[in-house]
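Re-running the complex after MR caught last week's input typo. The corrected sequence lines follow. Everything else is unchanged.
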Amino acid sequence: MAIFDVKTTGQVREPIARGAPLRAPCGACTVRHLTLCAALEPHELAEISAIVSSVELARGDPLFDEGEPAQHLFNVTSGAVKVYKLLADGRRQMTGFLFPGDFLGLANEETYAYSAEAVTHTVLCRFPRRKLERLLERYPKMEHRLLGMVSHELAVAQEQMLLLGRKTAREKIASFLLMLSRRSVQRGQNGNPVVVPMSRNDIGDYLGLTTETVSRTFTQLKQGGSISLLPGGKVEMADRARLEDIAEGL
Amino acid sequence: MAIFDVKTTGQVREPIARGAPLRAPCGACTVRHLTLCAALEPHELAEISAIVSSVELARGDPLFDEGEPAQHLFNVTSGAVKVYKLLADGRRQMTGFLFPGDFLGLANEETYAYSAEAVTHTVLCRFPRRKLERLLERYPKMEHRLLGMVSHELAVAQEQMLLLGRKTAREKIASFLLMLSRRSVQRGQNGNPVVVPMSRNDIGDYLGLTTETVSRTFTQLKQGGSISLLPGGKVEMADRARLEDIAEGL
DNA sequence: CGCTACGTTGAGAACAATCAACCCCGGTGG
DNA sequence: CCACCGGGGTTGATTGTTCTCAACGTAGCG
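Corrected-run output:
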């Protein structure tokens, strides 16, 4: 949910085993200004560097599962991550898609309240929770920044509740595309056409729809001239103003 | 969303004009241990007392509207508040019901991202935002506590996304009753029968349903022997285990 | 070159929404 | 005192959006 304006061209930084930690040079972090680590003094940054490691995931790799002991916080460096909750019978609700600059893993309890999995090849920074907490105690500015980020997450979650509870399939898809586009622009990338790296099924689980309905609605928007579907999972928003209206329920 | 275990018998503390501020004695606050003000040193409490005032609302009175400048934070002292977002055509999504001990009004931007209105006669503490922010700067412990509260709100919001996106009407109503019951117990009140102070319409807007569907689903649960509807807006959970199963999708 | 996963499209079913009537209760004013 | 009114709640009939089940196409990959 954070802002980001650095071009990351590829996904892979250094080929390491899945989940294996790697010493990361925070000084060279390209997304630092949008993360918890923004605006740190050099000595603070050094302390962060001392506890952080890097994790690399392949498409589909799990990062952690709901109920697991919450031992780490993460910051997405490149790629994309999906976070979701499950019902006993397998029904799934995505609670978010995370892109470079976004953080995840914050847990009030001792365990994660949701699962996280890589949508594409992804690299993350990993902070041991205990150590980070101790750092936050000593640097209230960092905690203040974290509060701002969590508050923003909460506002985004409330917007999503409005979508899930009250918008039609059409409005949901329009809102979704616009959200992806805005976040892409915030990361300094092209907002149109927008890259849609997740599957129809994932999109459905994010919007409270089935794959079929997602597919049909894309088709419908395409035939209505609002969008075109480009190869490589890109969507061109041919009539953005119209999409904005649809998303707002007009 | 906060925890609370003090019995508040009535709603009215002191009859004052709607929305009018009143000097409040924080030292005597019965819900302090669940709020931002929990575990403060006496001198910190004195500083809070110096900036806080009290607000009293009648049933249906607005507290603030989405888009309005966010000048205050609030803490519910007694009563109940609903917070919601609207679409252009009037469709409404409740994002939460707040009870004694809960706070509201946190805004990342300069304006409120949602509207708030009293469900019943309600009393709140009011903190000027700027002054509270200055206090938070000086007392990182308070900010730490606030972070914990917001994180909890976020976890609740994610649970609600699962409900809105993936649960059936039946499962939604069962989940809703159990949530009210749990929060009632946390406030030290009777969890069964549970008091349901809000209208069918409000419940529908919270669960992403219409009034009619809410009403029908209550009837259905009643006929199935899971609940009984008592006078005074109370609901007896005759078979709580069954409700738990329904809520989990079993 | 065939798998498999993903996406699209179609037909029919189902759940919840809509439209509508009615009830009950509390408040108000004749 | 009672008739009227209005809001909230319940129930019924019907509609409709989305889901389900199913078939088929396509692209990437071993």
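None of the earlier attempt is carried over here. The interface with chain B takes residues 85, 87-89, 91-93, 95, 106-108, 113-114, 136-137, 140, 143-144, 146-148, 150-155, 157-162, 164-167, 205, 207-208, 248-250 of chain A (CB under 8 Å). Chain A has two domains: 22-160, 166-247.
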